[in-house]
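Because discrete structure vocabularies remain unfamiliar, we turn briefly to a single example record, giving the amino acid sequence and backbone structure tokens:
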Amino acid sequence: MKSKLGYNECSLTLEDAKWLDWVPENVFIIENQICFHTFPKFANSVAIFGEGFKSRLTKEMPWLGKTNLYCWFDLDTAGFEMLNMIREHYSNAKSLMMNWETYKSFQEYSVEIKSPTKNLPNLSQEESELYEFLSTSNKRLEQERISQNFVQNSLTSIIHLK
């Protein structure tokens, strides 16, 4: 029998979260606070506010390797660096709305930013190509620029595909 937390929402320190005896079906690591607070709720799912590069602290939560782990970061070089970093510990991590479809749908909201290119061996081919594009074109699309409707549709398709 699967244990349940019995709460709609709860807050835990990272120290306490690593001791959880419950493995949710889905975990979403979200970079931006606004996106975290407006993230839709799904049964047996947890959203973690990654707070940018602080998301690396999740490496101390071994139960993340036993779940469907999704990472949603800004569509910029730093976002892909965070995804690469998470995959160093959890190869099961999938990117969420960090693809060409998302970028092309909202590219009018992208801004210029300069950032160095790094070697990110844990990205997929598509992710690597998008990372290279963002790096060479100096583009950035922040996740809060993506419409809530697009987010809902993207998430619903993932949850229903299982």
Remarks:
- The mean pLDDT is 86.
- The beta strands are 26-30, 45-49, 68-72, 94-95, 111-112, 139-140.
- Residues 12 and 18 are 9 Å apart (CA to CA).
- Residues 26-161 form a domain with the Dna Topoisomerase Vi A Subunit; Chain: A, domain 2 fold (CATH 3.40.1360.10).
